[in-house]
Design a protein that fits this description.
This protein is α/β, with parallel strands linked by helices. The chain folds into 2 domains: about 5-120, Rossmann fold; about 135-205, Winged helix-like DNA-binding domain superfamily/Winged helix DNA-binding domain (Arc Repressor Mutant, subunit A). It has helices at about 10-25, 35-45, 60-70, 85-95, 105-120, 150-160, 170-185; strands at about 5-10, 30, 50-55, 75-80, 100, 135, 140-145, 145, 190-195, 200-205. The strands form 3 sheets. The protein has a 5-stranded parallel beta sheet with strand order 2-1-3-4-5, sandwiched between helices. A 3-stranded antiparallel beta sheet has the order 6-7-8, with no helix packed on it. The chain has a two-stranded antiparallel sheet with strand order 9-10. Helix 6 packs across helix 7 (about 170-185). It starts with a strand and ends with a strand.
């Protein structure tokens, strides 16, 4: 299963280095240069894990993590920091971090730690919840009581994405599917590209 990682770090060089290293290791990666932007990203995109810097300009990593846990977002988080020591580790774990790494660190270790925190979450398929307004009746998608007219390819792509998978489907099929979902007033659905993999369904809350 493809794993989508969000890196939140205000160090441009380190953020780019982590992105390259994790993509080389087979992960899909998106990045944010601040906690504020990271918070906007996870409102729109479901990620499998977050690599989070602790000390950043603006809102810090602890505040970001506390806020998402208070909102019942249980995405696994690895907190990165130059602040070592037991008390700092306890600070990170106590607000909901799944793991805590001090800088500098090796990419190999970061990859292994991501594997460890995502393995329980991804051990079984994680189906998407069915978006409000859409249902599956007799093998056909129905929106607010009306049949959603989909081609065979569009129906297969939507079914795959609703299962939680990244669909390896053509851009034109996705364009048509987006248009039909929009015309059906399913404004809570978005389809995003995962570079080199395909397309993923995102359901906004």
């Amino acid at each position: 299963m493809n794993i989508l990682i969000l890196i939140i770090d205000d160090d441009n060089d380190l953020r780019a280095s982590m992105k390259l290293g994790l993509e080389t290791a087979g992960f899909s990666v998106i990045t944010a240069d601040s906690a504020e932007y990271g918070a906007e990203v996870i409102k729109r995109i479901i990620v499998d894990a977050i690599v989070l810097d602790r000390m950043m300009g603006g809102s810090d990593g602890l505040t970001f993590l506390r806020n998402i846990r208070n909102a019942n977002n249980q995405t696994p988080v690895i907190m990165l920091t130059a602040m070592d020591g037991t008390e700092n580790t306890i600070d990170g774990l106590s607000v909901g971090a799944n793991d805590y790494m001090t800088k500098p660190f090796s990419m190999r270790e970061l990859k292994l730690r991501i594997d460890n925190i995502t393995r329980p979450r991804l051990a079984e398929p994680q189906p998407q919840k069915m978006p409000d307004g859409i249902s599956l009746e007799n093998g056909e998608f129905v929106v607010y009581g009306n049949l959603l007219p989909l081609s065979v390819q569009e129906k297969a792509a939507l079914s795959e994405m609703l299962s939680g998978a990244i669909a390896g489907v053509g851009a034109m099929t996705v364009k048509r599917l987006r248009s039909k979902l929009s015309l059906a007033n399913l404004s809570n659905i978005d389809i995003i590209a995962v570079r080199g993999k395909g397309y993923k369904l995102v359901i906004r809350g």
